[in-house]
Amino acid sequence: METVLSIERPRGTPLQVRRCRWCGAERTCPAGWATRCHLCLDERTSPEIDLVRLAASSGFRAPLREAAQLAAVTTLVDVLAQFEQPGWTVIAGDVLGLPWTDDQYTAKSHGTWGRHDACGRIQVMSRGRDECATCPPEPRSRTHRARAEDAYLLYLVRYGDFVKFGRGYHSRVRDHLRSGATPVQVLTARHADVHVAELALKRRHVRDVARGIEGVPTSFGTGTEVLPIRLSPDLLDFLPHGEDVTHRFVPLR
After folding, report:
1. Which of 19, 149, 234, 237 is the most buried (most CB within 10 A)?
2. Cα torsion 218, 204, 153, 249: sign
3. Cα distance between residue 40 and residue 99, in whole Å
């Protein structure tokens, strides 16, 4: 039997880490699952893994299966190293595809998990710079949590027969105006509330968006938030507590 470690997570289900009884490699997986070791190959492997390719890519002069396992070790070490960050300790990961393949586009992962050294919180990690979900946001953080209380804008601008809705700071609205759009409605509220309101707008009009329109400003992007003018939404329906600041963007006459 494999060794199964259960690590308590703050306000979450325990993290399950399995340790292979043969090679000692550790991996994460959901509770109750019995996923395979990342490194050890067995009778189930040959039909599913290209041993010749793995062995050739490893550069190791060893029998085929041993070379394939060495290649898996190299892949495992390399991938986990990509998650190392100052202030965090990587616990274990579930590397996409191992032991069959290292193709990250055809396999799913249960994530790489780490412990925040300062407070001990355990959470899934990314290849960027992670922010602890328990500790206060770091200075100059750009995460949604750090900007939750910022004053933010939900806007609707018009160009010809189309309107575009979106969110951002003042500079984002003025980008559209410099491109020839005119303001229709601009509301301000907490960043967190504006974010939720825009998601609701997108869900409401997911089938109405006009993509690939010629002649609209480049600031309108690919059209995922562009609607025919006849479908112009009232932003107050989605952000009822927002303050109307449209006048800030209307040029003085």
Report:
1. 19
2. positive
3. 7
